[in-house]
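In keeping with the milestone schedule agreed at the kick-off meeting, the structural modelling team has produced records for the first pair of proteins. Each record is given below as a sequence line and a C-alpha cell line. The laboratory manager (R.T.) confirmed that both were archived under the project's standard naming scheme.
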Amino acid sequence: MHYALWALAALLVSGPMLAVALGDAPLGRDWRNASQESVGLAPEPSSHREPIVQVYAARTVGWRGAFAVHTWIAVKPANASGYLRYEVIGWRLRSGNSVLSISDYRAPDGEWFGAKPQLLRDLRGADAAAVIANAPAIKSIRRDIKAS
C-alpha cells in the first residue's frame, strides 16, 4: 500500500514536471510584458462571412501553467465585422467586476500572456449558427448590441 501511494504521487507530479521541462509552461515569463497578439488561427471576418465559433486553450502564466490552461470562446455571427471573445477571468472579481469577460477588442486567437493558444474546436456555417442561436448569453448580448 505504501508503494502504491508513492507511485500515485509520482504519477501526479510527473505531468506538471514534464510540462515545465518541455517548455510548455515557462516559469520565467513576465505577464506585464507578455504578448497578447493574434497567432493567425482565426479567419479574417472580411473574407469569411459565415458564422464561426472557435474554442481555444493556452497555458496559464507562471507555475500554474504546469497544471492549468486558460480557455475561451471566440464567436463571429454571420456577416459580422469581427469576433466577440468570451472568457472567465477570475482576478476581475477582486475589483468587483464580473468574472465573465466579453470583448470585441482582444484578438480571438491572441496569445494568453505570451502562451500560444491551441485551437480545440472550430465550428463554421450551420453548426456555428446553431451554437450562436442556442446560447442564452450570446443571444442576450446580440439583443443588447442591436438595441444600441
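The second protein of the pair:
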Amino acid sequence: MDLVRPRFGGDRDAPAAAAAPTPAAAPRTQPEPKTCDDDSRPSPRVSPGGPNDPHSPKEAGASRGINIAPGSDDDGWVVPPPVELSDGTRLQLFKDGEALHAAFEAIRASKKRVCLESYIFAHDDTGRAFADLLSTKAKEGVKFYVLYDSFGSFGAFHSNHGMFHGMARSGVRLQEFHPIRPWECRYSWRPVNRDHRKMLVVDDHIAGLGGLNVGAEYAGSWIVKPSKGVCDFWRDNAIGVRGPAARL
C-alpha cells in the first residue's frame, strides 16, 4: 500500500492548467475564551455547529476535548479508520483513556508473553487494576516482563511496596530502570538518564506505543473509576499495532 500519494488526482507529469487564485479556507480552530468562566463558550457536550462550521472538529482524528470515559461526548472526536501497511500490519490511532483501555483488553486476552515498558506505573486505582490483571495472567502461565522508571514510578514503589511485590510473587518479571538510590545501581549512577518510553507487545501480534503512562490521569474512567478523583487529566495519543510489525 502506497501511503504517500499526490494531493491532487491526474497524471503528475501532465502540465497543470492555470487557475484563478482562490482565498484560503479559514483554519479549523477553537476560539479561546477570555476567562475560564466565559459563559459565551459552548457547552463541552454540544457541537457548536455542523460539519461546515470552521470551529466544529468533525474530521477524523480531530478533537479539542479529553476522552476520559467510554461513551463520553468528546467534543466531536471521530475515531479514524485503521491504516493497513503493505505487510498486512494494521495501525490504529487512539486518544487519551481509550488507548489504555485497548492495552488493558489486549493484556486480558494474552496467551503467551507480554512486554510492558512505562515511565510511570502509578499506585492509584488504574495502576492497581493493571497490577492485579498482570498478577492474574501471570498465575495463568503468561510470561510478563515489565520495565518501569525508578524516578517516574518512585511513589508507586516506595509508597506501595505491596503492589510491585505482589506482581513479583505472582511471577511478573520486574526491572527498575536506573534506580534513584546509588547503592542500588548495578552499573554507574546516572540520575538524570530516565526511561520515558511507553511500549507494549502482546503475543508478538499486538503492540502499542505512545505518550500514555499507567495512571488515572491518563486513563480517566476507561479502566476503573478513580475513587479519589483526578484534578487534571492528561491529553495524549497512542498508536495500536496489529500484525507482523508487532513481532519482537
